Amino acid sequence: MRRLKAPQKMTWKSFRMGMLVCHQSFIVKREIAEPYDLQYRYSADFEWCIRCMKKAKIIFNTHHTLSCFLKAGISAENRKDSLKERYKIMCFYYGKIPTQIRHLWFAVRFYTAKLFKKNIY
């Protein structure tokens, strides 16, 4: 199961906290689905989801698992570049300063979890 959970009421702004729904489980009406922006090699799915949600009139949570997959793939293999692209996308959609502040929180959350895991073992 994913660490991040989709909120009951999701909007395009919900992705400020990360990719809450993976693109494999993201069903979009054909009328609003555009091609991926291929300037992003590793995070085009993240940008595409935000763009689709901005255009959607209704976003519906099925509360069902629509896809299962491993934590592997191009983004995982190129984690650093993927995170840089995602940061650039977040700055574009959510603003640079709010994105920087949010990433400080991400860092605190990451290192706190790392310390907690070390204390368990």
Order of helices and strands: HHHH
Q: What is the typical, i.e. mean, pLDDT?
A: 84
Distance between the termini: 22 Å
Largest sheet: none
Class based on secondary structure composition and strand pairing: mainly alpha
Q: Spans with pLDDT under 50 lasting ≥5 residues? A: none
Outline the secondary-structure elements:
Blueprint: H1 44-55, H2 74-77, H3 79-94, H4 96-120
Brief overview:
Helix content is 47%, strand content 0%.
Describe the protein in words.
It contains four helices and no strands. It has 121 residues and is mainly α. Helix 3 (79-94) packs across helix 4. The chain is globular, with a radius of gyration of 15 Å.
Features:
121 residues, mainly alpha, 4 helices, globular
